[in-house]
Write a structure and sequence with these properties.
The complex is a heterodimer of chains A (680) and B (135). By secondary structure, chain A is of the alpha+beta class. In chain A, 53% of the residues lie in helices and 19% in strands. In chain A, helix 1 packs antiparallel against helix 4, helix 4 runs parallel beside helix 5 and helix 8 runs antiparallel to helix 9. In chain A, 27% of the residues are buried. Chain B is α/β, with parallel strands linked by helices. The chains are: A alpha+beta (680), B alpha/beta (135).
């Protein structure tokens, strides 16, 4: 099934309908009028015919006494002829004797048979009567001779009208009336069309065009039709609708605007809070941004000061002139103030005061009075850290949606404020740590310098004396001075160890990492070992085996040398006789350095603690004294290189210490340590 | 006796150290000039030219650092080719790398010892850098 769209306009439809109705009405009227006209025409014809008949009758009656013979009839004929002529030849008039003999007839067609037939006809005018040999007629009058006249000379007057005569008249009148009716229909139609056009179609078109334009966005347009009729009502309703539409769109636009503003505010606060870590700057940006975004009278962020239980103004922006300025505001007492800010902080709830008036202590210069204020507590977890406070001069600025938005923004602000506070605390802590670190390293540098300087004097001046630079010395003096030098050297090594331990303890032991030649380093260690053995006059063999093609190591040459020297010194210290061997082997990415001796060895229980500070094997204490710092320092240095150190010992048979070092120590050096990394 | 007849300039504020170093050098036959760091040190060195070697303490009075002195001397074209050796009691763990990076001819850690000290200076005069960090 398909619906045909009606394309014909209402105007055409209405005009067609009206024209058709008018034409039907006119046709009906025409038919009725024609009927009436015909009846009236016939009636008038009959009356006239009867009048004629009566007149003829009277004439004949009057003249009859004069008529004595048939010859006289000619006379009568002449007279009647005149009468008929007066009646415009429309009627057929005949006078007959009762026996049917025609005395007079007005027309030659009126034969005797015709007249007889007419005489026989029933006396009914409206009927069309066929007359044999003539046609159809209306018999319009027929006199009845009086009784006294009934005799051989009685006569009868017959008046008839041929159908054609009447029909022609009816036809003519019908044509004229039809023409007039048609004209009337035309005029009425045109008037109707004009009236329809002016009063209905045009207003409707206007409405339609207005609707189109309003639909296109011209919301302020109104249809200018002030009429009492339905179209007027339609226009009024339409205007109302347009107004409501405009209102609706307006409201919608306002909502969109306010939503957009909220989103903007949220994004700006987010931007400020994620990019600003300086607390003062953060707060200033936030209050200015919220003030401008919402056009509030003032925006203030109060921060809780736990020291004196007050809410201190962190930053406050206030409308002044066309813009916002930062102002300072008095602190609010947390416990006792009735201020909304204090209340919000105490109750941990928002405080909305639509009846707010300016309060004491608020120095506002604005001309408009504050009509409402809103305080939102800033929370981090369950702790209050401050309050966001807003004042407005128009209550509408603090509608429920805006208040919700402010609460959301406050959550963000609270987090940002906490972050900024934590950042500031962390910065303070970092500064303190940096200061402490600076003081420590200064102390270490100073200690190193201050301890070595007098040792330099002791060692060298003693040597001067010993060398006889100040005069001859005897053997006893030489032996004594040698002990001074020994003690000073021992003291120097202790000072070096203590400085190292201190560096390790304060996290300032740094490695100077660079490539070095391990074979050369071991040769230098070997030389030192031989020197040590000579000094101690031990009957011990030192054998060192260095394989060909040792790789170039990357690490702190000085510290590796320190480790090997320390291990060798220990071996010398605890080995009275026999052999000390230093073996080196490269394997994969590692180098194994083994110091083996045939000394006193270490108890299994003691093996567990020799790498701890200030612990030394009993044998060591007995033999040489010392602070027990060497091995722990070795362990630290080896491990700092990413290596390991292990000791195996059988008491009475000897000790094996094995150090494993990565060929390249760089991957093992912690980035956050203070290690100095020297490439190349 | 490579130090025989060499002119060595010592910049050292600590009297004992100055006495020890100059005594060792004189015994080796070297000519010793010295000055605790003052405003006219560079002038004195220029007057003493030709100088074969400068020994520089890194810690000097009035917060003056040996590095400042080093830079000041290096800025004088006439002194640019003289080897400057750091002789200091400061921690080699922190200072040695610095002196090497700056272009010192050597670093000798205090306390010094007569025999080794002479050996180190002779090596430096031969153009061999010496980096001594263990006393």
């Amino acid at each position: 099934m398909s619906l045909k769209r009606v394309r014909t306009s209402i105007e055409t439809q209405l005009v067609l309908l009206v024209v058709i109705a008018l034409m039907a009405l006119a046709t009906g009227l025409q038919v009725m009028w024609n009927w009436q006209y015909r009846m009236n025409l016939i009636k008038a014809t009959r009356m006239r015919s009867q009048t004629i008949a009566g007149a003829i009758n009277n004439t004949i009656e009057a003249v009859r006494p004069l008529i004595n013979s048939l010859e006289d009839i000619t006379e009568l004929n002449t007279y009647l002829q005149g009468m008929v002529a007066q009646n415009a030849n429309v009627d057929f008039i005949a006078v007959t004797w009762l026996d049917g003999t025609v005395v007079f007839h007005s027309s030659r067609e009126w034969q005797g048979a015709v007249v007889s037939a007419l005489a026989q006809l029933p006396d009914a005018i409206t009927e069309r009567r066929p007359v044999p040999g003539f046609g159809e007629v209306y018999l319009t009058a027929r006199t009845v001779p009086g009784r006294d006249l009934v005799g051989p000379d009685a006569f009868q007057i017959i008046v008839a009208v041929p159908v054609e005569v009447i029909d022609t008249q009816i036809m003519r009148a019908g044509v004229i009336s039809a023409a007039l009716t048609g004209l009337a229909v035309l005029i009425v139609s045109v008037v109707f069309f004009v009236v329809l056009r002016r009063n209905i179609v045009q207003p409707l078109r206007q409405l339609a065009s207005m609707a189109t334009r309003i639909g296109a966005g011209e919301l302020s347009l109104r249809v200018p039709l002030e009429r009492g009729d339905e179209i007027g009502q339609l226009a009024t309703t339409f205007n109302l609708m347009a107004t409501q539409l405009a209102d609706l769109i307006n409201t919608l636009e306002q909502r969109v605007m306010s939503r957009t503003r909220d989103l903007e505010a949220a994004s700006r606060v987010a931007q400020v809070t994620t990019t600003t870590l300086d607390l003062d700057l953060l707060l200033e940006r936030i209050v200015l941004m919220i003030g401008q975004q919402y056009d509030f009278h003032s925006v203030c962020v109060f921060l809780l000061s736990k020291e004196d239980n007050t809410l201190q103004c962190g930053a406050s922006a206030q409308k002044q002139g066309g813009g916002f300025v930062l102002v300072q505001r008095a602190p609010v007492d947390l416990e006792h103030s009735q201020h909304a800010v204090a209340e919000a902080a105490r109750t941990v709830n928002v405080v909305f005061n639509p009846e707010a008036r300016r309060r004491d202590g608020d120095a506002f210069q604005g001309s408009q009075p504050v009509v409402a204020d809103f305080a939102i507590p800033m929370q981090v977890g369950s702790a209050i850290i401050g309050v966001v406070y807003v004042q407005v001069t128009d209550l509408g600025q603090l509608d429920i949606a805006t208040r919700r938005m402010l609460e959301t923004l406050t959550e963000q602000i609270a987090i940002a404020v906490r972050n900024a506070q934590l950042f500031a605390e962390a910065q303070d802590a970092r500064k303190l740590a940096e200061e402490a670190s600076r003081i420590k390293s200064q102390f270490l540098a100073s200690m190193s310098h201050e301890l070595r300087t007098p040792l330099n004097a002791i060692l060298n001046f003693t040597e001067f004396v010993l060398d006889g630079a100040l005069g001859p010395v005897n053997e006893e003096q030489v032996a004594t001075l040698a002990k001074v030098i020994d003690s000073a050297e021992h003291l120097l090594s202790l000072i070096n160890d203590i400085l190292d331990v201190t560096k390790i303890e304060v996290g300032m032991m740094s490695l100077l990492v660079e490539p070095y030649d391990l074979a050369r380093l071991i040769k230098s260690v070997e030389a030192s070992g031989h020197a040590l053995l000579r000094t101690r006059r031990r009957d011990v063999t030192l054998s060192v085996s260095i394989p060909e093609n040792l790789p170039t190591m990357i690490g702190d040459r000085r510290r590796v040398r320190q480790v090997l020297l320390n291990l060798l010194a220990n071996a010398v210290k605890f080995t009275e006789e026999g052999e000390i061997r230093l073996r080196v082997a490269a394997q994969d990415q590692e180098v194994h350095l083994v110091v083996e001796d045939t000394g006193v060895g270490i108890d299994p229980q003691e093996q567990a603690v020799i790498f701890e500070y200030f612990r030394q094997a009993q044998a060591g204490l007995m033999a040489e004294g010392g602070a027990g710092l060497g091995l722990p320092i070795c362990k630290y240095l080896v491990e700092a290189h990413g290596g390991s150190i292990a000791v195996r010992s059988t008491p009475g048979q000897g000790t094996v210490v094995e150090v494993i070092l990565p060929i390249d120590a760089r991957p093992f050096i912690a980035r956050d340590s203070s290690s100095v990394l020297v490439a190349g | 006796m490579k130090l025989q007849g060499k002119k060595i300039f010592i910049i050292e504020d600590e009297p004992n150290s100055l006495a020890i170093v100059s005594s060792i050098l004189r015994r080796q036959g070297a000519a010793v000039h010295f000055d605790p760091w003052g405003i006219d040190t560079a002038e004195r060195i220029l007057k003493a030219m030709p100088v074969d070697m400068i020994l520089l303490d890194l810690m000097l009075p009035d917060q003056v650092s040996g590095y400042d002195v080093f830079r000041a001397l290096r800025a004088i074209p006439a002194l640019q080719s003289i080897p400057i050796v750091a002789v200091t009691a400061m921690d080699p763990a922190t200072e040695l790398a610095k002196t090497r990076a700056m272009g010192f001819a050597g670093f000798i850690c205090k306390p010094i010892r007569t025999r080794t000290f002479v050996t180190y200076l002779e090596a430096i005069l031969d153009g061999i850098p010496v980096w001594i960090d263990l006393a």
